[in-house]
Specification:
The chain has 367 residues and is α/β, with parallel strands linked by helices. The chain has 2 domains: 171 residues, Rossmann fold (3-Layer(aba) Sandwich), CATH 3.40.50; 184 residues, Dihydrodipicolinate Reductase, domain 2 (2-Layer Sandwich). 32% of the residues lie in helices and 29% in strands. The chain contains 12 helices and 18 strands. The strands form 4 sheets. Strands 3-2-1-4-5-6-17 form a 7-stranded parallel sheet, with helices on both faces. A 7-stranded mixed sheet has the order 10-11-12-7-15-16-18, covered by helices on one side. Helix 2 links the parallel strand 2 and strand 3. The longest helix is centred in the last third of the chain and has 18 residues. It is globular and about 55 Å long.
Length: 367
């Protein structure tokens, strides 16, 4: 039994803490007493982990840190944890380049796995698995987490920090076509995609490839697109183009505020998952290439719904993270330095089995 500290007790962090507590001693840390009170069977600490001295005391005797803080805190938190010489598995999806911490992690002898959620996360692990076993030419990932109940105008609910969600709408999207990195604005190239059990959804460019652009330069075509209910992209584009997602302060009645902060404050009540609300996670991955000299296509389909009183996006994200956390804390994965999830391709079978045991099933077909 290991001693694990989970930083962040939100909807995903709470699921991570509860799952790890089945086999380990877990302490959840958050600044919100409201979030901590929901974790009745787990040790909790109310603290500001952005303060390095506080963080140092909290993680001093732990075997592993799991990062589940909002993205805007993620990079500095991960840097501090690495500097304090603790292994970490992180899901915070921060905008900074994680490889900027690689030298520090190697110097400190730390195992640091980043972006360890569903996408990026499990999608990368699936690709890493196939990259070890075939010559991949094409990778396409379509993914989204959506409420079962569609409510005007946004038809969306968030399990993450609202600012993290808005980041998807403003961060330039990168994909790879014919071995060239293409940069487009987020929300671009919207198209309708039909799914048998859900119906029509709208896909658009988001910056989900992340580390794959650097770690898989030999794959000539790679793209990830986000899925939402049809129509919401236009609302988001209007808000973005009107400046509501801007980080540049503006002056109102003598006070300076960032439009992004105001927007997040206004939208969060509309996006917040409320008691009784249910969601689903949908993902389709298509991998093409050559295996043993023959052309082959693999397709992975995930349709995971709210179950066991737990939000689907929290389960699909959280259980991927806890699977990897178990690998690290049990010394099954010991690569020093920054590890994007695609590095865990050889552990795909363990992770897939771990998820299946928790009701998260990736259906695979080969043709």
């Amino acid at each position: 039994m290991a001693n694990i500290i989970v930083l962040g007790a939100g909807l995903v962090g709470g699921v991570i803490a509860e799952d790890l507590a089945k086999n380990h001693s877990v302490t959840a840390v958050d600044l919100s007493e409201k979030k901590l009170k929901k974790l009745t069977q787990i040790s909790t600490i109310k603290a500001d982990v952005s303060d390095k001295k506080t963080l140092s005391k909290i993680i001093d005797k732990c075997d592993l840190v799991v990062g589940a803080v909002p993205g805007f805190m993620g990079y500095q938190m991960m840097k501090d944890v690495i500097d304090l010489q603790k292994n970490i598995v992180d899901i915070s999806f921060y905008p900074e380049d994680p490889f900027g911490l690689d030298k520090l992690a190697k110097r400190k002898g730390v195992v640091a796995v980043m972006d360890c959620g569903v996408a990026p996360g499990m999608g990368n692990i699936i690709l890493g698995h196939h990259d070890l076993n075939m010559k991949v030419t094409d990778y396409e990932c379509l993914v989204g987490g959506l409420p079962e109940k569609r409510e005007w105008p946004y038809e969306y609910q968030a399990v993450f920090s609202p600012i993290d969600v808005i980041e998807e709408y403003v961060r330039p999207a990168r994909f790879v076509k014919n071995s060239e990195v293409i940069i487009r604005e987020a929300l671009s190239d919207a198209e309708i995609v039909d799914f048998e059990e859900i119906g029509s959804l709208e896909s658009w460019n988001s910056d989900g490839l992340r580390s794959l652009i650097n770690t898989m330069p030999h794959i000539p075509n790679m793209i990830e697109k986000t899925l939402r209910y049809p129509g919401c992209v236009e609302y988001l584009k209007v808000l973005r183009e009107s400046g509501f997602f801007s980080y540049d302060p503006i002056e109102i009645n003598g006070e300076k505020i960032r439009p992004i902060d105001m927007t997040a404050k206004l939208l969060f009540p509309k996006w917040e998952m409320k008691k009784g609300d249910k969601d689903f996670t949908i993902m389709r991955i298509i991998i093409k290439g050559k295996e043993k000299g023959k052309k082959v296509t693999y397709q992975y389909n995930l349709l995971d719904r709210y179950q066991d009183d737990t939000i689907s996006m929290a389960r699909t994200t959280g259980f991927t993270c806890t699977a990897v956390a178990n690998l690290v804390v049990n010394k099954k994965y010991e690569k020093i330095g920054i590890s994007p999830p695609e590095y865990l391709g050889k552990h795909f079978n363990f992770i897939q089995k771990y998820l299946k045991e928790r009701g998260v099933n990736y259906k695979v077909s080969k043709y």
